[in-house]
C-alpha cells in the first residue's frame, strides 16, 4: 500500500511517483491587521494510485488546501505540481484546461444541473471543452456506478446517494489523473455514504486514480490509504492504514489540544 508523504522534500528524480506535490505552500487572505494566514508553509505529496483523507477542525485550512492543490485558488507563495505540471506557472486559460483535462471534482452539494438528465449532467464538462466522448463511454461508466436505469432521469428523481454517483460518474468520464473530493458523503445517510466510498475506493484500486478527500467523518477516512491531519494551517500528523476508531481518537486529541491552547476556530 502506498504511503502519503508529508512535511518532506520530494526530489526532482522522484517527482514522477506523485500525482500532487505541494512545497511550502502559503495562503494569506487580507492585509495589515486583518491578515489571516490560512496555509502556513504546507509541504505534502500524494503518491499515484493513492487515496488520502484530509481532516482537521473547522477553520484548520483543509478546504483551502484542497482548493490550492486543485488549482481552484492560487497560493500566496509556494509551489503546486499536478501530474508533473507546475500550476503556479500557468495563466488562467492554461489552468482551466488542466483542471478540465486532468482533474475530477466531487462536492457535497453534487453540483448537478436540475434541468438536465443524468446522461447530460455527466457529459456536460466534456461538451463544454469540445472533447470527443468515446462511443459507449457514458453508458459504461453509468452502468459501473449502478445508474444504467436512470440515464434519462433528472436529479430531482434520484436519491442523494444516486445524485452523488452521478457526480462521481461525471468526475470519472474524462479519465482524470486526480480526483478532489470535498465532503462527498457529508449529505448522505450511512448506507449511501458507504456505497459512495466503495466507488471511490474502486476508482483507486481498479482505475488507478489518485483521490484527495476532505472529510470530517472518521468512517469515511478509514477507507483511505492514509489520513493527513491539519491544524492552524499546518500538517500536524499523518496516519497510514487508518481505522475509524484510531482516526476518531486522534481527532479528539487534536481538538482537546487546540481548546487548551485557545486555538479552536
Question: How would you portray this structure in words?
Answer:
The protein has a 6-stranded mixed β-sheet, with helices on both faces. Mean pLDDT is 88; it is low at 260-265. Helix 3 packs parallel to helix 5 (160-173), helix 4 (137-144) crosses helix 5 (160-173) and helix 5 packs parallel to helix 6 (190-205). By secondary structure, the protein is of the alpha/beta class. The protein has helices at 62-69, 92-102, 118-128, 137-144, 160-173, 190-205, 218-221, 244-260; strands at residues 5-6, 18-29, 36-47, 51-55, 77-82, 85-86, 103-107, 178-182, 210-214, 226-231, 234-240. 34% of the residues lie in helices and 25% in strands. It has one domain (49-73, 91-260): 3-Layer(aba) Sandwich (Rossmann fold), CATH 3.40.50.300. Helix 6 (190-205) links the parallel strand 8 and strand 9 (210-214).
Largest sheet: 6 strands, mixed
What is the CATH H-level superfamily? P-loop containing nucleotide triphosphate hydrolases
Helix percentage range = 25-40%
CATH architecture: 3-Layer(aba) Sandwich
What is the mean pLDDT? 88
Radius of gyration: 18 Å
Q: Do you know the CATH topology? A: Rossmann fold
N to C succession of SSEs: EEEEHEEHEHHHEHEHEEH
CATH class: Alpha Beta
Amino acid at each position: 500500500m502506498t504511503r502519503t508523504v508529508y512535511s518532506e522534500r520530494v526530489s526532482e528524480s522522484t517527482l514522477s511517483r506523485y500525482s500532487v506535490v505541494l512545497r511550502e505552500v502559503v495562503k494569506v487572505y487580507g492585509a495589515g491587521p486583518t491578515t489571516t494566514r490560512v496555509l502556513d508553509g504546507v509541504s505534502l505529496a500524494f503518491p499515484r494510485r493513492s487515496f488520502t483523507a484530509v481532516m482537521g477542525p473547522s477553520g484548520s485550512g483543509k478546504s483551502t488546501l484542497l482548493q490550492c492543490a486543485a488549482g481552484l485558488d492560487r497560493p500566496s507563495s509556494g509551489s503546486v505540481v499536478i501530474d508533473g505540471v507546475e500550476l503556479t506557472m500557468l495563466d488562467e486559460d492554461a489552468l482551466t484546461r488542466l483542471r478540465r483535462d486532468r482533474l475530477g471534482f466531487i462536492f457535497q452539494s453534487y453540483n448537478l444541473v436540475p434541468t438536465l438528465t443524468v446522461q447530460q449532467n455527466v457529459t456536460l464538462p466534456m461538451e463544454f471543452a469540445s472533447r470527443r466522448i468515446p462511443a459507449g463511454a457514458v453508458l459504461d461508466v453509468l452502468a459501473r456506478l449502478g445508474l444504467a436505469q436512470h440515464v434519462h432521469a433528472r436529479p430531482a428523481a434520484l436519491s442523494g446517494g444516486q445524485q452523488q454517483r452521478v457526480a462521481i460518474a461525471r468526475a470519472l468520464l474524462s479519465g482524470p489523473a486526480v480526483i478532489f473530493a470535498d465532503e462527498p458523503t457529508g449529505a448522505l445517510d450511512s448506507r449511501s455514504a458507504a456505497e459512495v466510498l466503495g466507488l471511490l475506493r474502486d476508482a483507486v484500486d481498479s482505475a488507478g486514480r489518485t483521490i484527495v478527500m476532505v472529510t470530517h467523518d472518521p468512517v469515511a477516512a478509514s477507507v483511505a490509504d492514509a489520513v493527513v491531519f491539519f491544524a492552524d494551517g499546518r500538517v500536524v500528523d499523518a496516519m497510514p492504514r487508518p481505522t475509524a476508531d484510531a482516526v476518531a481518537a486522534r481527532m479528539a486529541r487534536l481538538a482537546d489540544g487546540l481548546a487548551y491552547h485557545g486555538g479552536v476556530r
